[in-house]
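Limitations
The structure tokens in this dataset are predictions for the assembled complex, not deposited experimental models. Users should treat interface geometry with appropriate caution, especially where small molecules or nucleic acid strands are included. An illustrative entry is reproduced here so readers can see what is and is not provided.
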Amino acid sequence: MKLRLASVCVNGTLIGMALIALFPLLWMLSVSFMQPGMASALPPPLLPAHPTFANYRDLFAQSGMGGYFLNSLLIATIATLISLVFNLMAGYAFAKLRFAGRERLFQALIGGLVIPAQVAMMPLFLLLKWMGLVDTYLGVMAPMLVTIFGIFLVRQYARSIPDELLEAARIDGAGEGRIFVQIVLPLLKPIVVTLAIFTFLASWNDFMWPLIVLTSQQHYTLPVALAALSRERVQDTEQMMAGAVVTMLPVLALFLMMQRHYIQGLLLGSVKG
Amino acid sequence: MKSRRMAAWMFLAPALLVLGVFFVLPVLGGFALSLTDFDPYALADLHNLRFIGLGNYLALLQRPEFWSALGNTLYFVLVGVPLTMLASLGAALLLNHRLTRWHAAFRTALFAPVVTTLVAAAVVWRYVFNTRFGLANGLLSGLGLDPVDWLGDPRWAMPTLILFAVWKNLGYNMILFLAGLQSIPPQLYEAARIDGASAPRTFWHVTLPMLGPTLLMVGILTLSGYFQMFTEPYVITEGGPLQSTVSVLYLMYEDGFKWWNLGMASAVAFMLFVLMFAITSGLLLFARRRGHA
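Predicted assembly:
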């Protein structure tokens, strides 16, 4: 009997917490289907009386949401692909190739993790301005193309590749490039998936830097556009919720599909190296 | 051997080049910039740029806006970090409990806010905490309580942002705590049980000490994340009401990219960096004394 009570307490509290975690998201979804003005009734309704897609239609037809979506998608995809190549190569080199100063260089990189990105933002803006990259996709991606965290993650994982395997390939006369592509990359596949999800989510959700570097509206990513829209149209609750759904849905779906990889990477990235 | 060393540098070159140009150079440049009076005139013509030494830093120490932004940020950090850690440790303990059912479903639900886009989630919260039509006040009136002017009252705005941060970040810390809890050897609990230790005593003398390194790591991660608060006030309160939610980075953004005082903005960024570095180092030192790390 006592056990039964404890079980109700534990699971009841968890149900309560889960509800609090999900409630704002469910409410957002519900309001996004309400007729304009419905959400500002008293008392605030929980479900749409007459569900409609009008908010989504208006967002895409009048507010250019399709363009912002495409910007976000392109930037996140290209940034993910490029950073995968660079981070994988560097992480592998730090884990498995010998060269003078390897440990010291790696320690220096890890030391760089304590520097907050904002310290670099003002000069980076000036540098990109000088290079003509302000208000371009490449400008948004610049700080994402290589990440110390990504290199660290790959190195942690690549250390488990047996040296004998690489030596055997070298004795067979394979070049370093071929070894990397044909032997190492297949072995790194799980971390490639994890890192890809991480980078895509980080790029998609990024706000401060895109806000700074994107100056013309047609180049906005979803978060920048949504922040601007919600400042302009405070009253359009229903449309803003539809905008929030469009912004969140792709990353939430990606997370739900790839949850196992994501959580694994999160734990791998947090252990002390 | 020589060709292999060459190969190593070939593998590193792209990453190091990009990091050098887009990270190392700007960080060094940022410090240099913070020693100049870079303003809109310098943006137009570099001849207007002057070296002023520590002038920006000294000016900063006399700006009331800076002190109030620092105070607001510290409020967010000092209240938000312990609250987030307590809530996420509680969630992890519950998830790890042997009586817990639907383990995976709970974990996914509690983690979901972490992956949502910060701006979009902030927009949603802005409406949930709307004074007239928001659900938060709807709930309060349902309980027979008076409505609260969550985002319009300077006393309530920061607590509301802290609630939002706890909601958004709880899942991340929870996962790290969960891993820490699961790595505690079951024999320790067995021994405590044989000794007849009560649940609170077991928690205090077994769980908590064994969780030491995880607590330290989660603490430092949360701390540095909260010091960098920007999106929350930008989207939810626009720094208001009465500047009560202007954070250090919000000030940096306005100095730098609204007024184009890039020299002053760089000084603000470095001040924040130094503060974060000092506090993190202090924590690490404290933990080392206690023998955790």
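Some entries come with short summary sentences. For this one: The two ends of chain B are 38 Å apart (CA to CA).
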